[in-house]
Amino acid sequence: MKFYSFHLMPYGALDLDYVEKHVSASLVLPNSYYDPQIGHQLYNRYLDELELADELGFDGVCVNEHHQSAYGLMPTPAVMAGALSRSVKRGKICILGRALPLLSNPLTVAEEYAMLDNITGGRFIAGFVRGIGVEYHATGVNPTYSLERFHEAHDLIIRAWTEEGPFPFEGKHYSYQYVNLWPRPFQQPHPDVWIPSGGSLETIRWASDPKRKYVYLNVYSNIDVACGLMDTYRNCAEAYGYTASSEQLGMALPIYVAETDAIARREAKPHIEAFFNRFLRMTNEMLLPPGYTSVSSLKTLLITSRETLMANHSLEAVDKLGMFLVGSPETVRERLAEFEQRLGIGHLCAIMQFGSLPHAQTKRNLELFAQEVMPHFRAKVTAGSCP
Hints:
alpha/beta; eight-stranded parallel beta barrel; globular
């Protein structure tokens, strides 16, 4: 299994009493809650933490995209990836990912990603997402066209990376007389593509298509739901006529390691509860606006969103559900081994800083996980078998 340090870069100084006046830390939370002096410190601190992960031997570092939110301060993740492209010396840099349907010009992402791929000498992973409902409210894009804009933007980017230009592109949403990418990607035919998702069935079927075989990365699902989604990917692959490997499956998961179970739980409790109950909090309308998804996918996504975004979570509850791993190195190793066996994943994006977790605890968390957990999973291969 390969390990990546995934940073959300939240506004860690958030006044958690905001819930007395506002329903979410996204979209409707006034930006008067943001202090640029604190933001300056947090951005640089968070970059330090990702650079430390690289020094400790993580296989890569990950950033992502969110808009108008205290939950994640990266509306333009390529800025963070660019800052890391010269300081991350060993691992890969992954953007998880750019929300393609929000873009008026998807070629800007083809260019950004190609630049990062060249700067890093091929140590770049391209992530594409549709984006959650908040992003559509924030940008004014009609969510009814989300899926078709995503597919069209994706096809344009892949053609721009792989076909000799200039050539014209005529689509329903995007039209260009000249597609002629400078620079071309360093990796040929193009960088690896990852597709993070909360559980859209259309996304899983599309990602597993033999023309793509993209990595499906599950986010914020409990272990039982995640297991079913991994099986869905494997079943789709079988229907297409091939067997999916663990290298095509991954999971993003907040993790906290300390010297003992008792210390880990005591230290993590206020921060993981703030993460789920304050930073992630939003209404279903914010997450899934009308027209965004199909009825079949909506059923799965509502289960995930109800558990993740609006419930009054305790550390004990999210730990039991498998939405958070916490404990001593031995405990985390045992639970992670269970996850690896059940899910059959080849990639783990570990969220080592969450919510208001301070730098000192984040640093120790990274060190203990890298030194006492990761080595036990190197070179192991499991097929995955959900009961």
